[in-house]
């Protein structure tokens, strides 16, 4: 269990360091878990202030779960600036594409079919046309497999992402359990709400049939939207 850290700062501000923005706690810049300076590029001024807002909103004790943007930026600095780590992450993310949930289109029940048509199909169509790739869709999960040419083209695309944008993609894909949802989100093609609705299509269809479990779904919905929202904010200008 992590030790409780009490709020040790009074003032939060945004400053500059060597041409980048930094978040200051009582004039001291925040750092990553590895001790590196958390730096935000000049093109992402809004992101710097959003990070500052996360720290300003902390109460008497530090709540790491309420620092999703800081976590993403730190991940990009500590991990995704390393070529070997980047390659490993990209491989892992592309595994989600091989059996991507938005490529699995059920034939029943009707509620699920309707949700998949509403949220899955536009994402698949966008990826096909934007990247000129062949994307297989099926109703048989055991038959779902993407062509190597499509996988490699997507690898080339995300390999060009900055460490910050790759961190946003990683977090979005892991949350949505879908490479294409994460990609559409960080490319700013879909909104956070659309990404969440696509990721939760099956759960929402079940809810329509069985009803909602009190509190449980609310917590899941909030947590997912927090992660996806952080990914989208981080991707802007990255």
From TrEMBL:
Keywords annotated in UniProt: Chaperone, Mitochondrion, Transit peptide
Q: Which InterPro entries match?
A: ATP12_ATP_synth-F1-assembly, ATP12_ATP_synth-F1-assembly_N, ATP12_ortho_dom_sf
Domain of life from the UniProt record: Eukaryota
State where the protein is found.
Answer: Mitochondrion
Q: Name one GO biological process term.
A: mitochondrial proton-transporting ATP synthase complex assembly
Give me the Gene Ontology terms describing cellular component: mitochondrion
Q: Does the keyword Transit peptide apply?
A: yes
Query: One of this protein's Pfam families, by short name?
Result: ATP12
| TM helices/strands, residue ranges | none
Entry-linked PANTHER family: ATP SYNTHASE MITOCHONDRIAL F1 COMPLEX ASSEMBLY FACTOR 2, ATP SYNTHASE MITOCHONDRIAL F1 COMPLEX ASSEMBLY FACTOR 2/ATP12 PROTEIN, MITOCHONDRIAL PRECURSOR
Q: To which protein family does this belong?
A: Belongs to the ATP12 family.
- The protein in question is named ATP12-domain-containing protein
Organism name:
Coemansia reversa (strain ATCC 12441 / NRRL 1564)
The taxonomy runs: Eukaryota, Fungi, Fungi incertae sedis, Zoopagomycota, Kickxellomycotina
